[in-house]
UniProtKB/TrEMBL annotation:
Taxonomic classification: Archaea, Methanobacteriati, Methanobacteriota, Stenosarchaea group, Methanomicrobia
SUPFAM superfamilies, per database record: PurM C-terminal domain-like, PurM N-terminal domain-like
Reactions accelerated catalytically: 2-formamido-N(1)-(5-O-phospho-beta-D-ribosyl)acetamidine + ATP = 5-amino-1-(5-phospho-beta-D-ribosyl)imidazole + ADP + phosphate + H(+)
Pathway(s) annotated for this protein in UniProt: Purine metabolism; IMP biosynthesis via de novo pathway; 5-amino-1-(5-phospho-D-ribosyl)imidazole from N(2)-formyl-N(1)-(5-phospho-D-ribosyl)glycinamide: step 2/2
Record's protein name: Phosphoribosylformylglycinamidine cyclo-ligase
Organism, as annotated: Methanimicrococcus blatticola
Gene Ontology, cellular component aspect: cytosol
Molecular functions (GO terms): ATP binding; phosphoribosylamine-glycine ligase activity; phosphoribosylformylglycinamidine cyclo-ligase activity
PANTHER family: TRIFUNCTIONAL PURINE BIOSYNTHETIC PROTEIN ADENOSINE-3, TRIFUNCTIONAL PURINE BIOSYNTHETIC PROTEIN ADENOSINE-3-RELATED
Principal subcellular localisation of the protein: cytoplasm
Length: 333
């Protein structure tokens, strides 16, 4: 790699500042309902849980982020709805909940023919994959606030309270199984866009490693929805789950204070290698920003691992240790 190193922070997204903002936003959110509907988890896990008798109702909210700007560049909006659903559903799955219902929020600068229909195609497909209903939503025209459009959503799921997985069962020696991502998914696109903007390539150019597809189309591959996780939970003992999204492997701090030793990680797809080379991005920065080919992890007892890998096509990527997050020679912090 040559030239000035690109980082997520230099693209305008500082994950440490984001953490400070979240702490400031939530520090006064101290009131908690009691009885029916009382919260069962603190703010900060993948999903929020509420007491509904035998069940816990799980809620998530998320959006597509600046990936929508690449959709605009390509004039292709029929897959970003899948991303919107996936980012929410995968967070539900990471706490053991089954998705049930979804509402979307589409904020527009202005309306144009055909655009909303394409967005709807992706939302419908994501809901079908997730086996849930879209039960409503909201569209807002905000020309003084929005330049282009923004797409987000909220998802509700359910899980029996005794089946909730927050990570407290994780123990040293457990096996980490990685499930492949479909590509970049829907995080880190501020850095992606900075890299492409400063490179000799445009989104309409064909990938140098795959001349059958353009860079833009490669970057718009929708986020994988990991519904197979629910089948695993029905058949095998699972100690922890994690959806690998923005801030990469740092997200693992959400589920346990124990450590992760990724001694045999999934080989990152070519799109990550291309971006890393074009942006002169360090290995550490890549693993702190992107999923790097591993979109979800399942943590299980060693004796269960072969069966879970057989069910999911996942790979044994490491084990649980006393402390730290390590990937071969990298220390993620």
């Amino acid at each position: 790699m040559t030239g000035k190193e690109s980082t997520y922070a230099t693209s305008g997204v500082d994950i440490h500042q984001e953490e400070d903002t979240i702490k400031s936003l939530t520090k006064t959110m101290t009131y908690k309902r009691e009885g029916f509907g009382a919260p069962l988890t603190d703010i900060g896990h993948y999903a929020g849980l509420m007491d509904f008798g035998e069940f816990a109702i799980a809620m998530t909210t998320d959006g597509v982020g600046s990936k929508v700007l690449i959709a605009n560049e390509m004039g292709k909006w029929d897959t970003i709805g899948i991303d919107c659903v996936a980012m929410n559903v995968n967070d539900l799955l990471a706490i053991g909940a089954e998705p049930i219902g979804f509402v979307d929020y589409l904020a527009l600068e202005k309306h144009k023919p055909g655009f909303a229909a394409e967005v709807g195609i992706g939302l419908a497909k994501g809901a079908e994959i997730s086996k849930m209903s879209i039960v409503g939503g909201e569209t807002a025209t905000l020309p003084d606030i929005i330049k282009g459009f923004d797409l987000a959503g909220t998802c509700i799921g359910a899980v029996k309270k005794e089946d909730v997985l927050t990570g407290e069962k994780i123990k040293v020696g457990d096996v980490i199984i990685g499930l492949k991502s479909s590509g970049i998914h829907s995080n880190g696109y501020s850095l992606v866009r900075k890299i492409i903007k400063e490179s000799p390539y445009d989104y309409q150019d064909y990938c140098p490693y795959n001349p059958k597809t353009t860079i833009g189309d490669e970057l718009l591959v929708p986020t994988k929805i990991y519904m197979e996780v629910l089948d695993v939970l029905k058949k095998h003992e699972v100690h922890g789950l994690a959806h690998i999204t923005g801030s990469g492997l740092l997200k693992l701090r959400r589920i346990t204070n124990l450590g992760f030793d990724f001694d045999d990680p999934i080989e990152p797809p070519e799109i990550f290698k291309f971006l890393q080379e074009q942006g002169n991005v360090s290995d550490l920065e890549m693993y702190k920003t992107f999923n790097m080919g591993m979109g979800f992890i399942i943590i299980v007892p060693e004796e269960v691992a072969p069966y879970v890998m057989g069910m999911t096509g996942g790979k044994r990527v490491g084990k649980i240790v006393e402390s730290g997050i390590k990937l071969k020679n990298l220390v993620i912090e």
